[in-house]
## 1
Amino acid sequence: MSRPEIVQEVTQLTPELIESGEWRKVIIKEYNVRIPGPVIYPGRIHPLREIIEEVRKIFVSMGFKEIYSPYVESAFWNFDALFQPQDHPARELHDTFYLRTPKIAKLPDKTWVENVRKTHEQGGETGSTGWHYKWDENTAKKTILRTHTTATTVRYLAQHPKPPQKVFTVSRVFRAEKVDYTHLADFHQVDGIIISHDANLSTLFGLLKEFFARMGFKEIQLRRGYFPYTEPSVEVFVKFNNEWLEMAGAGIFRPEVTYPFGCKTRVLAWGMGLERLAMLRLGLTDIRKIYDVDIDWLRNLKLLTL
């Protein structure tokens, strides 16, 4: 029996083989076109960024303008301007990050500050009886990492009290939360307001239903709720996997919020957590996965938008 002959096969036609004519003499290895080629992963936008851009496009398409404000905020804009009493539990260290440097913020226009003080103490010009306590200016000066983006919208309202106004914001907020599968200490919120003489609850309900429908949620429920700075207030639930999940809070700003800044017009307001929305869109059960450095998950995740 003869020994097998060792034959060297060529897998590539190189310029040298072609120029020398050696390609006529070599054995070219057969190619199996059915074998999958190597996977190429192009660059892509992070899925959370995709969702942020999608939210922005929806609100802009509905005639809204995007607004911004600083992460470091005064307690005045974060709490006092929203008629949240200075002894409210949400203002305690176990919920809010207070800063050492800078420790004190400069308060805005004295007229606004005085109007907010009167509103807290005895209702001011709103017809309310207020909270019946002595409002402390030093407490309002404390600096914090903002706990909600409603601080952004109330700032804008104070600077632009005259209708019509339609604005929204998508940005980071910070809370002293214990991080687990449903909570983060650093996350994003979506907030918005409409200042209009013609605005009413039907306008608000229609806006919320349209927004969530464009985000892919066809079944929506609105339930009576309570928030310190809106009355009436509603909670927005969407149906996902046959379960009703709370997604947003909304309502009409109380006069105690709008009157101190010279806004006597009805103001619709809403706010929601973006990561909760992202969890549903991405099919996640753990909110921490959004920020996990899992390159395989990011590579294989389908694009949310085209």
Note: The longest helix spans residues 47-61.
## 2
Amino acid sequence: ESEAAFAYDAQIHSLIGMGLFFASFTILFMVNNLLEDRRLGIWDRVIHSATPRSAMYAGHLSFSFLTGLFQIVLVFLLFNLVFRVDLGQNWPGVLITIALYTLAIVAVGLFLAGLVGNAQQMNIVIPIFAVSSAMLGGAYWPLEIVSNRLLLNLSLLTPIRHALDALKGIIYYDYSWAQLFPLYAVLLGFAVVFMLLGLFLIDRRGR
């Protein structure tokens, strides 16, 4: 009955949902290297050296971003080219969605790193955040079958929800750029807000 009510393909949904979900683990654990540097004393050496903190942040975060981006793109290309899973015709839109989602997860990871005290605590927080976000955001099952308004409203607080909406719009409904831009704006908003909060918290703890 659900399949008749909305566009749904189990193979496609599993690919995009699990692809984004598992990449979030990679990205968040990469961001956790910031806290590892603090534990190992590298952070203090950088602070007292001529190297600006901005260079250290940029190095860590760009590496996390590129690693996550490469992982998702590789998985999507593999399934599209080898297993012939149809991901629509708007590949630029797919790539922009992936890039903005990756940036948002990097920013959320930085925020979480600023909240926790050390790398060990971050290792505990990452699975809790990744799994709960995937469940709320619709990575495991389509949100169209969820009727609880509270859960649907909470899903709007997860980057994966908006990335999945954009990808499903591209694949199932051939969304135009005008339809994609609001979803991109939300993902970019996640990235900007959590990046600023994360930098503030990390910098304050690093003093």
Note: The chain is about 80% helix and 0% strand.
## 3
Amino acid sequence: MNIWDFVYGSLINNKQVVLIVVVDSKGSSPGRAGFKMAINSVGEMNGSIGGGFMEHNLVESCKEMMKFPFSPFI
């Protein structure tokens, strides 16, 4: 599934979504600029930012962040 279809599908089903985008990388980082990953509030994921420790930590941070109510209008 295309990442944008995943984001859209999550949003129309009232699930929060976090989009993670690699904007720059240096050295041996597995993720390269432009890699994208989305995770929704029920833990479904699409895409990858290169895997490994960094991706795992960011996914866990996103899950924690989505535990709290969010309103884009506050």
Note: Strands lie at 17-21, 36-40, 45-47.
